[in-house]
């Protein structure tokens, strides 16, 4: 059966993931569902991976033969980048240049060596949330001669950005399910240097409604979250966006897997910082399950079971936020 079958069970990846999604939907309060549904209704529902050809999922469902569907299960990865003024244009130039290339190449290479096809999207947020790259197969994006650029602007409206990210990834999963595309995990990965604000720049803590939504999505694994922080962002916010996951190992012991790390270097606008960040993003995004076991050393990774999807971070550059 292989490690992925052992991890996800005998009924197949898509049915397992759907069960998790349904479990999350049943447990979610009506207010949470209404918020996500309202945003999803305004989000584009065309999936570039429902048939892995670059046209809408619904068009392929009507006109493409079943064999055109991807044979590998699809993992959706939405990267959400803070582009507020505090980050600086030089840092964003690296992210949208060599950094994005590094991420896409990592996903492409991982797809060739495992059982997952990565479906990647890039969104930028400040006072508004902007789709920079819509969902598309990572290997197709990596082959493009040019990629969009990022421009720093305005404030850090994190709350709206996360709701938008969840709505977009939910719409993508719905299109894939309609096209009978097998799915693996789904991940929202955020990079931020600031504390959440409103449109005027005044501090605005994340709402209890959103914090509950993030926690429930992680617990049911309908959508996992991972956050990389730096600069002025506080640890409390990072823990809310990336709450730790409790993984139960086969021997019955429990393992706390962090979902939030902070860059510890002095200059988070430097090229050195963003080379490290983009490398970590690529490895976190190429998880086979959407929920990697985050560890600080190879020795710690060696204690995990053989099927565990270990993500070893550089403890000289990042620290775990607990």
Order of helices and strands: HHHHEHEEHHEHEHEEEHEHEE
What is the end-to-end distance? 35 Å
| CATH superfamily label | von Willebrand factor, type A domain
Domains, number: 1
Whole-number radius of gyration? 18 Å
Number of helices: 11
CATH architecture: 3-Layer(aba) Sandwich
Description:
- With 322 residues, the protein is α/β, with parallel strands linked by helices.
- The chain has a single domain, classed as Rossmann fold, CATH 3.40.50.410.
- It contains eleven helices and eleven strands.
- It has helices spanning 2-8, 13-27, 30-42, 57-63, 89-113, 138-142, 158-178, 208-220, 235-241, 271-285, 298-302; strands at 74-82, 117-125, 129-137, 183-192, 224-229, 245-248, 254-257, 260-263, 293-295, 310-312, 318-320.
- The strands form three sheets. Strands 3-2-1-4-5-8-11 form a seven-stranded mixed beta sheet, sandwiched between helices. A two-stranded antiparallel ribbon has the order 6-7.
- β1, α5 and β2 (117-125) form a beta-alpha-beta unit.
- α2 runs antiparallel to α8 (208-220), α3 packs across α7 (158-178) and α5 runs parallel beside α10.
- The longest helix is centred in the N-terminal third of the chain and has 25 residues, at 89-113.
- It is globular and about 50 Å long.
- It starts with a helix and ends with a strand.
- The relative contact order is 0.16.
- The model is unreliable at 1-20, 22-33 and 51-67 (pLDDT under 50).
């Amino acid at each position: 059966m292989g490690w992925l079958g052992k991890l996800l069970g005998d009924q197949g990846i898509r049915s397992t993931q759907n069960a998790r999604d349904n479990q999350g939907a049943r447990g979610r309060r009506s207010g949470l569902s209404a918020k996500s549904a309202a945003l999803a209704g305004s989000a584009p529902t065309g999936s570039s991976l429902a048939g892995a050809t670059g046209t809408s999922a619904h068009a392929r469902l009507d006109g493409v033969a079943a064999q055109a569907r991807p044979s590998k299960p699809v993992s959706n990865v939405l990267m959400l980048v803070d582009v507020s003024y505090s980050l600086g244009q030089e840092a964003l130039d690296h992210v949208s240049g060599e950094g994005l290339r590094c991420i896409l190449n990592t996903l492409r290479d991982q797809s060739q060596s495992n059982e997952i096809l990565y479906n990647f999207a890039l969104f930028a947020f400040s006072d508004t949330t902007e789709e920079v790259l819509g969902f598309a197969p990572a290997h197709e994006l990596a082959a493009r001669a040019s990629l969009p650029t990022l421009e720093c602007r305005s404030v850090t409206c994190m709350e709206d950005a996360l709701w938008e990210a969840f709505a977009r990834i939910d719409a993508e999963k719905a299109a894939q399910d309609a096209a009978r595309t097998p799915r693996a995990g789904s991940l929202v990965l955020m990079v931020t240097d600031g504390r959440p604000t409103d449109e005027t720049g005044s501090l605005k803590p994340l709402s209890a409604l959103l914090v509950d939504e993030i926690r429930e999505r992680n617990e049911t694994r309908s959508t996992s979250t991972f956050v990389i922080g730096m600069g002025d962002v506080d640890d409390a916010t990072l823990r809310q966006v990336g709450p730790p996951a409790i993984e139960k190992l086969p021997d019955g012991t429990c393992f706390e897997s962090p979902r939030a790390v902070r860059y510890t270097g002095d200059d988070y606008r430097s090229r050195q910082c963003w080379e490290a960040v983009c490398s970590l993003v690529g490895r976190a995004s190429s998880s086979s399950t959407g929920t990697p076991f985050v560890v600080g050393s190879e020795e710690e990774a060696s204690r995990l079971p053989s099927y565990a999807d270990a993500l070893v971070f550089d403890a000289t550059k990042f620290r775990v936020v607990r």
